[in-house]
């Protein structure tokens, strides 16, 4: 099955040469999103980690919606924080509101030395199409 490359109308413009999402066999890999409050990568970010986390999650929901998915379809998340020690608790407080407590995806959170355009946070995701979960591999796989 060929890869599907998605550029989502209404999602922030890419800051580098990438697709918003790439899909393979029902798995959808979302490129890390930045806290842009519009589609232009030249707009200022919201102030503070809580506001930036909320905006990044909004942008990820826009990408998910653009491929017909939602947060309930997310299997794995990676969070990148510029100021890990300072912002970890505040980021978690916002992040925790985005998923049902008993249905949160697997997650890794990483402290980094820099993010594009001076962001405090970037988040990427892997989602799975629900109709793919029960598909049996073909005999020719």
Number of domains: 1
Q: Class in CATH?
A: Alpha Beta
Give the rounded overall mean pLDDT: 92
Order of helices and strands: EEEHEHEE
CATH architecture: 2-Layer Sandwich
The percentage helix is 10-25%
Helix/strand-derived category reads alpha+beta
Estimated radius of gyration:
16 Å
The tally of beta strands, per DSSP, is 6
Principal-axis shape: globular
Strand content: 25-35%
In the sheet with the most strands, the strands line up as 1-2-3-6-4-5
CATH topology: 60s Ribosomal Protein L30, Chain: A
Alpha-carbon distance between the two ends: 11 Å
List segments where confidence is low: pLDDT < 50 over at least 5 consecutive residues: 135-141
CATH superfamily heading? RutC-like
The largest sheet, given as strand count, sense and whether it forms a barrel, is: 6 strands, mixed
Number of helices: 2
